[in-house]
Amino acid sequence: MAALNIAVVGGGIAGLTAATALSRQGHRVEVLERQSEWPAVGWGLTLTGPALRALRSIGLDQACIAVGYPIDSINNCDVRGVTFHTVEPPSLLGPGEPVMVGIGRPALSRVLREAAQNAGATLTLGAKVVSIDDEGDSATLVLDDGTRKTVDLVVAGDGVHSAARTAIGIDEEPRFLGQAVWRTTVQRPSSIDRLTTFNGQEHSSGIIPISEHDAYVFTTQIVDDRSADADVDLAADLRELLSPLEGEMAALRDGIVDSERVVRRPVMAIIVEEPWYRGRTVLIGDAAHTCAPGMVSGAALAIEDAVTLADELGARESVAGALDAFFRRRLDRARLVVEASEEMTKAEFEHRYAEEHEIQDRAFAALAAPA
After folding, report:
1. What does the pLDDT read at residue 179?
2. CATH assignment, 5-174+268-367
């Protein structure tokens, strides 16, 4: 396929990975990010084996490992820290390589931005897309400042509340799952060298190392309303939610005092079952599928989407054929993660923790197969 002019809407994990993969194939790529600056602070995430495998295919696995923290297993514990179940996902990179990597979101963003720019992509901040008009063999984006950009392909990775998804006529909306997730970063205790969860009477909590010095703490909360009270003391509320934890985690909990470093988000889910494209616009990442956090696989799906889309564009003679092949390759895999994570959320609601871990084990095994 001849080189295309491509606009990537959204400068998150999906968009920046797509910018790198597509630029390396010779396409002319511009990333349009609506925010006015890149993230400087934030919590972390887990790059699972499938994410690392996809990053290796574009040469970015080692860069992510270097700024993150290698993890080989998940320990599921009670609130005292006593391990009752261990998840050991299959290693997909080979002997001596990590099974997973905990990484800070700002650090991952820096790696992906540098790779995209080195590959030749243009990154534009403060570019809010307000409409997308399909014109057969091209599409025109209109920005909020009136700028018009006509391109051969629009790749929309603009998140769970995707404006692009609505703009191209896909009406599916994310569902609220009755849960909120809280996150903050802390100094990593030397004893924390893997993803560790703590199952309590009311909800689950956990800690994930994201560098030699840092970790992020999370907890879930059953809530009736997806909106949050703007006047609450987030740090105090998070300490209360973590109050059942004992030992070293209790000391970490008591050190959470800065509400500006605490993030509370409603847990949403969506899987777009109809084709993820309309004309010359295609959805990737959370715009097409968003999962609850239990499977720690949202980033993996986004990265796999980006790499798979570039692969299909490189292998097919037409854009339409590539988009259709991309969708068919990705739908079942995305559905597996979304459904497994929702099953885990329901099991957690009912304190069926053993079943929750079994669901995760089965899904990880299935995801070990090539994307």
Report:
1. 94
2. 3.50.50.60
